[in-house]
Automatic annotation (TrEMBL):
S-adenosyl-L-methionine binds at residues 289, 318, 339, 385. InterPro entries: MeTrfase_TrmA_AS, MeTrfase_TrmA_CS, NA-bd_OB-fold, SAM-dependent_MTases_sf, TRAM_dom, U5_MeTrfase_fam. This is TRAM domain-containing protein. It holds the Pfam family TRAM. GO terms for biological process: rRNA base methylation. It comes from Synergistes jonesii. CDD domains: AdoMet_MTases (cd02440). The lineage of its organism: Bacteria, Thermotogati, Synergistota, Synergistia, Synergistales. PROSITE patterns: SAM_MT_RNA_M5U, TRAM, TRMA_1, TRMA_2. The active site is at 412, 412 (nucleophile).
Length: 457
């Protein structure tokens, strides 16, 4: 029986969606995930985790290299769980993401031969991220240990720099961490009850690619006292280049970063970013694509699909701060834009006004409830961009009741996208085509724009 510590020689068959090598071992053909290994390579590996249906192994020695292997740029590669594909050439990354999407549509979505276009490359392969989110802990003898999680873990790899975030964010993050360590506030404990001064859960640094505005959010597990707020203000105000800073309070357990209440520390509580000819205002907690250059290309493409038959009315679900809404409305259609997260939804109207767009009806409501209510109306096109979990069954039911001629579905998760496509197909829609966009170079994640039409037969 295989056990932890056993050593095997394996050949890597392919890569999974997380960028891990995949092999099979033993008579039962146990699936083995091997981080850092590439398809076609042979390696000696040590089993580090054994589960019922799979195992995880570490490379001890490689006997050959894939022709697509390149030298990772980051010194933390392999220890940090952020960028699993730094060792794979960029062209091969794009091919992998197209394959990941096609496999999900076939295996989960039930599509026999889905029409999947080539993956749209990102304008920037490095330094593209306009946001850095760092969990903060009191661990390993450090009062404030901040960084990114190790693969398959909630243990933190201390932040030493990151090559995929904008260089200005990288420099600013190091200054912010140094300033926070000068206060008496510490990170939370990973296990067990945190002491009173162990309050910081996360820090988020956002910088607009095209306006240069930079906003900081310090997320705390409880409301800081007036003395603690004074400490934060005093430490952070000295950092040059910050447009503003807020303290967000999230007392809820779980991995969701944001709470509903924020306290201003200094400067602006919002920031602006430009996508194409539009400028958008939003808060630190608002959803906004992390790759501004690629977001503009994706929104232009999705809008072109939605507006192809010149629909008079479009229903947009999960609208965020109205980023894609503006691109849709520019085509002349009337847009009903629905967003659940109130700190984002409240900016849809003001962003429309700032960009001179009038045919937008914003609606701050739970998408599940709003979609059911709006299913009584007629829309020529529905556009949606849900979170990674995809659509609730109530939303799918509402889409089938609306029976729009076309659905444009934007997704950051091929698996839940494929699941929802299957549900829609069972209700009379057909997949026309899917186009992946590389919103996250050096990682296994892929963004997709799908066009579905109603089967009129």
């Amino acid at each position: 029986m295989m056990k932890q510590g056993d050593i095997f020689r394996v050949k890597i068959d392919n890569l999974n969606g997380e960028g891990e090598g995949v092999a099979r071992i033993g008579e039962e053909g146990l699936v083995l995930f091997v981080p850092g290994a590439l398809a076609g390579e042979e390696a000696e590996v040590r089993l580090v985790t054994k589960k019922k249906n799979y195992g995880v192994a570490k490379v001890v020695k490689r006997f050959c290299d894939s022709p697509h292997r390149v030298k990772p740029r980051c010194a933390s590669f392999g220890r940090c769980g952020g960028c699993a594909l730094q060792h794979l050439s960029y062209g091969a990354q794009l091919s992998l993401k197209k394959k990941t999407l096609a496999d999900a549509l076939t295996r989960i979505g039930g599509e026999r031969e889905p029409r999947v276009f080539d993956c749209e490359p990102s304008p920037s392969e490095w330094g593209y991220r306009n946001k850095a989110s760092l969990p903060v802990q009191s661990a390993a003898g450090e009062c404030l240990r901040a960084g990114f999680y190790k693969p398959r873990s909630h243990d933190i790899v201390p932040y030493r720099g990151c090559d995929i975030v904008a260089p200005e964010i990288d420099a600013k993050t190091k200054e912010i961490l140094s300033a926070l360590r000068g206060t008496r506030l510490c990170g939370v404990r990973l296990n067990g009850k945190s002491a009173e001064r162990e309050t910081i859960r996360e820090i988020v640094v956002r910088r607009a690619r095209f306006t240069g505005e930079t906003l900081l959010a310090v997320i705390c597990r409880r409301a800081p006292s007036s003395a603690e707020l004074k400490l934060l203000r005093g430490a952070l105000r000295e950092i040059e280049g910050l447009s503003g800073a807020v303290c967000n309070i999230n007392e809820s357990p779980g991995n969701f970063i944001w709470g509903e209440k924020s306290v201003p520390l200094f400067g602006k509580e919002t920031m602006r970013e430009r996508l194409g000819k539009f400028v958008f205002t939003f808060e630190a907690s608002s959803f906004f694509q992390v790759n501004s250059e690629q977001a503009a290309k994706l929104y232009e493409y999705a809008a072109s699909l939605a507006l192809e038959d010149l629909p008079r009315e479009i229903l947009e679900l999960y609208a965020g701060v109205g980023g894609m809404t503006a691109f849709l409305a520019a085509g002349g259609a009337k847009i009903t834009a629905v967003e659940s997260w109130e700190p984002a939804a409240k900016y849809i109207a003001c962003n429309a006004e700032a960009n001179g767009i009038k045919k937008i009806t914003p609606l701050a409501a739970r998408v599940e409830e709003a979609a059911s209510e709006l299913s009584k109306k007629n829309y020529g096109t529905v556009v949606l961009d849900p979170p990674r979990a995809g659509c609730d069954e109530k939303v799918v039911a509402a889409l089938l009741k609306i029976a729009a001629e076309r659905i444009v579905y934007v997704s950051c998760n091929p698996a839940t996208l494929a699941r929802d496509i299957k549900r829609l197909a069972e209700g009379g829609y057909e997949l026309v085509h899917a186009k992946p966009f590389d919103m996250f170079p050096q990682t296994g994640h892929v963004e997709t724009v799908v066009l579905m039409s109603r089967d009129k037969d």
